[in-house]
Specification:
Length: 70
C-alpha cells in the first residue's frame, strides 16, 4: 500500500482547478453558440425545461472532462 504523500494532494488540487477552468470555458462556448442568453432565460424567464437541459449538458461535459483529466 502506498503511503500518503503531499504531492498527491497538490496533484489533485491542480487537476480539480484545471477541470473547473475547462468546464467554465466549455460552458461559455455553449452559451455563445445559443441564440439567446442562457442565464437570462433560466433566471428571469423561469424556463425550467432549459434549466434541466443545461444541467444535463453540464453533467455530460463534466463526465467527459473528468475522464480526460484522469
Amino acid at each position: 500500500m502506498v503511503d500518503f504523500h503531499p504531492g498527491f494532494l497538490l496533484n489533485a488540487l491542480i487537476f480539480a482547478i484545471l477541470g473547473i477552468v475547462i468546464f467554465i470555458a466549455a460552458f461559455a462556448v455553449v452559451d455563445k453558440l445559443t441564440p439567446y442568453a442562457l442565464w437570462k432565460e433560466i433566471v428571469e424567464e423561469k424556463n425550467v425545461a432549459l434549466a434541466i437541459l443545461v444541467g444535463a449538458m453540464s453533467i455530460g461535459m463534466c463526465i467527459i472532462i473528468a475522464a480526460a483529466v484522469h
